[in-house]
Automatic annotation (TrEMBL):
It comes from the Bacteria. The keyword Ligase does not apply. Keywords: Cytoplasm, Cytoskeleton, Repeat, Signal, TPR repeat. The lineage of its organism: Bacteria, Pseudomonadati, Bacteroidota, Cytophagia, Cytophagales. Interacts with microtubules. InterPro entries: RMD1-3_a_helical_rpt, TPR-like_helical_dom_sf. It holds the Pfam family RMD1-3. Residues 1-24 form the signal peptide. The keyword Signal applies. GO terms for cellular component: cytoplasm; mitotic spindle pole; spindle microtubule. It is found in: Cytoplasm, Cytoskeleton. It comes from Rufibacter tibetensis. Gene3D superfamilies: Tetratricopeptide repeat domain. One of its GO terms (molecular function) is microtubule binding. This is Regulator of microtubule dynamics protein 1.
């Protein structure tokens, strides 16, 4: 009798609140997204990707899951030494970025993620595709920064893009002229440095920004500035295993620069 009463009560509850089941599912999705984002912040990218993909299996247009899934795929790909595995994850990152742009082409984050995925693809594609993508990266970065001028990641990527464009090889310049007929992107080391400095100002705890800035400063023969940047990097708190590796690289680079100066 008691069991029958509980069953009737459940039926009446569902009839009174028809959205209760979907609401429970929504709460489950929120918990899963929170767990995925926690793994994302800890650079546990394989586990994070699994959760983002699980989220997207039930909600394929969830913007945050799409953009974060693209970023973690890029991070995983960059840990491989061989182009085969790199390309596999970079293509996957690009796929998530494309979907994110389809869902929302106006916001900063989807445009930044698209630029980031194209930047990663430049590592593994043929020279013609690389030159086309360099033009596309600039377009997406400009859109991202137009929507959010305080997007540290976009400023960092713009700095890396500017450095790459300012130091294109003769082969790359020739390929752009002969194979793409696109206008050659124009930039300078100074523009790269300014963009990276903006990224650091917006996110002063990110070791990668300091490391990339120091590398550009070294190539620009700004030795004193390079040393100062690396010293600031080594003062930052180390939180993740990624930070430990970047700190090690900063120490090695500082030793190289000081040795050159001596």
């Amino acid at each position: 009798m008691c069991r029958t009463f509980r069953l009737m009560l459940l039926v009446l509850t569902l009839m009174s609140f028809p959205n209760l089941t979907s609401l429970a599912g929504g709460l489950g999705s929120e918990k899963l997204l929170w767990e995925a984002n926690q793994l994302f912040r800890e650079y546990k990218d394989t586990e994070a990707l699994e959760k983002y993909e699980l989220l997207l299996s039930s909600n394929p247009e969830l913007p945050e899951a799409l953009t974060k899934a693209s970023i973690v795929c890029g991070r995983i790909g960059n840990r491989f030494a061989d182009d085969t595995h790199k390309s596999l994850y970079f293509q996957k990152a690009f796929g998530f970025a494309q979907k994110a742009i389809e869902v929302d082409s106006l916001s900063a984050e989807p445009n930044y993620v698209m630029a980031l995925s194209l930047s990663n693809l430049c590592q593994t594609v043929a020279i013609k595709d690389r030159m086309v993508q360099l033009n596309q990266i600039k377009t997406y970065l400009d859109k991202a920064l137009a929507q959010d001028a305080r997007h540290a990641g976009a400023w960092h990527l713009k700095g890396r893009w500017a450095y790459k464009v300012a130091n294109l090889s003769f082969a790359e310049r020739s390929a752009n002229k002969l194979l793409t007929q696109l206008p050659l992107p124009v930039s300078s080391n100074d523009q790269a440095i300014n963009a990276l400095l903006k990224a650091i100002k917006l996110d002063p705890s990110n070791l990668l920004y300091y490391y990339d800035l120091a590398r550009v400063q070294r190539e620009a023969d700004l030795k004193s500035e390079c040393v100062s940047t690396l010293q600031k990097a080594l003062d930052q708190k180390l939180v993740t295993t990624e930070d430990l590796e970047l700190s090690r690289k900063c120490k090695m680079l500082l030793q190289e620069v000081l040795k050159v100066r001596a």
